[in-house]
């Protein structure tokens, strides 16, 4: 289980980097009303889904997920808050990718910018950063 926790924790940086790169690519493409697509959009989506799969496995085997301990901040965070916000973020990112494939030009990139940006904000808010005192480290 330790290796899985470290993989899930380490992959967060790849997810964040790909989302930031996708947003960084979408901004000028939207402003210039460019056509075409970027593979970074798909890579960001795939990395989010892989992270979700690792997280779901951890959700069912982690001792930090305990519905009987909901009064304590740590257990409530991992049992409800973390998974809920991450699900919403990944749903937004997926919707953004699907919708962007159906349109062309600057609208495609604006769609990515909006949905991936909202997903990124939720992900950053839901990560158990070490300074939040939730028992998680940098990796």
Q: Give the biggest beta sheet.
A: none
Tell me the distance between the termini.
14 Å
Strand content: under 5%
CATH class category label: Mainly Alpha
Number of domains: 1
- The 3D shape can be described as elongated
* CATH architecture grouping: Up-down Bundle
Report the order of strands and helices: HHHH
Rg, alpha carbons: 16 Å
What is the averaged pLDDT score? Answer: 92
Q: Would you tell me the structural class of the helices and strands?
A: mainly alpha
Helical content band: over 70%
**CATH topology name:** Four Helix Bundle (Hemerythrin (Met), subunit A)
Q: Total number of helical segments?
A: 4
What is the total tally of β strands? 0
Low confidence ranges = none
Report on the structure:
The chain has 139 residues and is mainly alpha-helical. The protein has a single domain, classed as Four Helix Bundle (Hemerythrin (Met), subunit A) (Up-down Bundle). Helix content is 74%, strand content 0%. It is built from 4 helices and no strands. The protein has helices spanning 2-31, 39-61, 73-101, 106-126. The radius of gyration is 16 Å and the shape is elongated.
